[in-house]
Structure formats: structure tokens, C-alpha cells
Amino acid sequence: MTFVFLLISIAVLILLITWLKFNPFIAFLISSILAGILLGVPLELLAGSIQKGIGSLLGDLVIIIVMGAMLGKLVAESGAAQRISEVLMGIFGVKNVTWAMMVTGLVVGIPLFYNVGFVLLVPLVFTVSYQYKLPAVYVGIPLLAALSVTHGFLPPHPSPAALVAQFGANMGLTLVYGLLIAIPTIIIAGPFFAKFLKKIDARPLETFQAKPKEESELPGTFNSFFSALFPVFLLIGTTILSFQVDPGHVIAPYIKFIGDPGMVMLISLLLASYTLGIHMNFKTAQLMETYVVATKDIAMILLIIAGAGALKQVLMDSGVSKSIADSLQGWDVHPLILAWTITALIRVAVGSATVAGLTTAGIIAPMVSGGIVNPNLLVLSIGAGSLMFSHFNDGGFWLYKEYFNLSVKDTIKSWSLMETIVAVVGLLGVLALDAII
Fold first, then answer.
1. If you ran DSSP here, which 8-state letter would residue 191 be given?
2. Greatest CA span in the chain, whole angstroms?
3. pLDDT, tens digit, for every residue of 146-183?
4. Going by C-beta distance under 8 Å and a sequence separation of 6 or more, which residues neighbour residue 239?
5. What does the UniProt entry say about where the protein is found (predicted)?
6. pTM check: above 0.70
């Protein structure tokens, strides 16, 4: 009955949002309560579970999203996004815009957490879309496919890095294998799939759409790229330093603090406030007003993500992920396919790629010690499964939907299907590598 109750809870969530037109945050709260009751979470613990889910997810994301929205607004308003798009278009050409976005997402996505990369680069997508009169989804999907793949497949992202440690895999070899699989996966789920999305009507949030400026008003090329991508440089630098410096060294805590994604975004915003703001003749009061507008526009996004966190926590506390894993453990199938299947089903059930990956790791770990599967490929198989069919219980689903201002139907047709393609093609890549090596 666990699976039936899970389906009922998700069906209620979908009906509340699509049929009754409920605010998604309220719908999430109602569905979370229903799921908790049906799945046997004690009533005295249910409210606490919901609050924990909201707090834990927002605790990780609120600084990143708010600072990223402010930085994105400034990058757009200052003309930096316009300058960056002009340079990229000059290199790739308008006809190859999807390839330009894909390369940008891959390069930036390797060191950058998904949510940071999303809020940092989506304004660039909207600027290119507006300036060249191209559909926003068509331009954006290749970039988001790249960010998603790097998040699920490649260390040093949280889930693959944790799996490497748990399975005793080789971090460098996993990264090499991951890149071999990631590149064709991104090409298929990005530029190729985007060709079928040109008719989706997206109306992105106005806060990230700046009217084209005259050439004389634009910041320089170096200033634009440096200010917009400073979070990438800072994360790469602190990551390299963290590997070079002994954990007991006096500067190690400072490196860890500065390298925290939230701190990276704050430092980057302060830098850009000067390089793209004060330096470009913005008044401080004008800058602060720009940031207020950016924050207002993402308030509902934060609440929707919080609602997704509440439902995810209730499902975790109810033991749904363990039930799914236990029911599949006895399957007589290839271990890489088994690991992918368990991860994919947990991902669809609870919405979190990281939770799905780490839950599966505990079930599959004996296969590694038994020497019956390559641990590096097992990390990638689980990583691919953890990206399967993002939908209503995933904060990333709502982040994409609200930023691009899409209907639920079009979000599923573009975002959810893209994530499914990534998961399936990723598994095929893992199996192909397994046959070769």
C-alpha cells in the first residue's frame, strides 16, 4: 500500500495545481500532510517533518538564490549579459546558439553547484532569447542539460563525490569516465532535443530581461565576463586550494568558509556591485532598488521550493525510499541496471537526486566489495538514475517553471523530458563503457 499512498499523494498535488489552480506552495503543504497521514508518519511529528523539510532546503538555497537573483539582475541591467551574448554569438553564430549555451553550461557547471549555475546563467539565456528573438526554452534547455549532467555525474558535486568515497572509486578516473559519457548525453538532451521545443511559449520573468543598450553604454568584455563568472573563478580557486592545503593548516578554515557557495555568491555580488554598478555610474541607492526588485520577483519561487522540500522530507521520514529499495533488491538483473533502476524510482518518489543516489549506495555497496562491478561506473550509473524524470516533488522543476514562466504541461514537455533523456542516455553510456573496459 506504500506505493498506492504515494501515488495518491502525488495525484492530489497535481490535481490541486492543475485542476483547482491552487497556489503551488499551499498545494505542497496539503499534499505533504496527506502523504504523512497515509504513510503513517505520527501526527505529533508530522508538522515538525514539514518544517524541517522547508528549513533544510531553504537553508541550503536561500542565500544562493537571493544573491544569484540580485547578481543576475545587475548583470542584465548593466548590459554585461548583452555584451557576453554578443561575444558568444560572434564566436558560434546565431545558428549555433544552442551549442554556445551547451558549452557555457558544461564549462561553468563542472565547478559550480546546479542551483548557483542556474541563477547565474539563466539571465544570459533570457538576454540571448530577447536580443535575437529566439524561444527561451530552445535557448535554455542545452545550458540546463549541461548543468544537470555535471551535477549528477561529475565530482566534485555532492552526490557523485560522496559515492566515490563510499565505493572506494578513483575520483580522477570517475571524472574522466563521467566526461566521456556526459558530452554525448548533453548533446542529445541539449542541442538535439531543443530542436523539438521551439513552439513552447515561454514568457520569462521581466526582472531578468533588460532592454538592449547602446554600444557606448555597455561594460567592457573582460569586465562583463569577469564579473558574471567570478563565482566560477572563486569556486575553482578555493577547490584547488582545499586539495593543496593540509586540513590542519591555519588557512584551511578560511578557504572552506570562502568556498561555501553562499559566501561565494555574496562576495561575487559585492564585487559586481562595484565593477558593474558603481564603476558604471550606478548610484548606491539605485543598486539597492535593483536588488529589491530582483528579490520580489523570486519570493514565490522560494516558497514553491520550500513546499517541495516539505513533501520530500515527509516522504523520507515515512520510509518510502527504503521500501522501494528493499522491494527491488532481489531483482536478477545487471548490477549497473539494478543500481540505475533503484535510484531512478527513489528519485521519482522523493524528488532529490542526492537523496536517491545516497540511498541506493547503501543497498548496492555489497556488490562493490564483492568485486562484481566497476565502482567508477557504478557511481555514474547511480548518477544517471538520480536525474530521472524531475517532476512536482523536485525543487528544480519549480525553479525552471517559475523562472521561465511556463505552464505545468510545457514544463513536463521540456524540463521533465530532458531530465529523462539525460537519465536514459547516461545509462546507455555507462553500459557501453562497461562493455569496452
1. I
2. 67
3. 999 999 998 878 789 888 888 889 888 999 999 999 99
4. 111, 156, 259
5. Cell membrane
6. yes
Give the dihedral of Cα atoms 31, 37, 41, 46; nearest 10 deg: 60
Q: Per residue in 197-223, is it b (16+ CB within 10 Å) or e — as a string?
A: beebebebbebbbbeeeeeeebbeeeb
Cis-peptide into 123, omega within 30 deg: no
Quick: pLDDT tens for 249-264.
999 999 999 988 889 9
Query: 7: how many CB neighbours lie within 10 A of its CB?
Result: 11
Phi/psi region, residue 21 (left: phi>0; alpha: psi -120 to 50; beta: rest), is left
> 39 near 311, Cβ under 8 Å?
no
pLDDT of 116 > 90? The answer is no
Which tens digits make up the pLDDT trace of 283-327? 999 999 999 988 887 888 888 888 888 888 888 898 876 676 666
Q: Which residue has the cell 510545457?
A: 410
DSSP per residue over 391-437, as a string?
-TT-HHHHHHHHHHT--HHHHIIIIIHHHHHHHHHHHHHHHHHHHH-
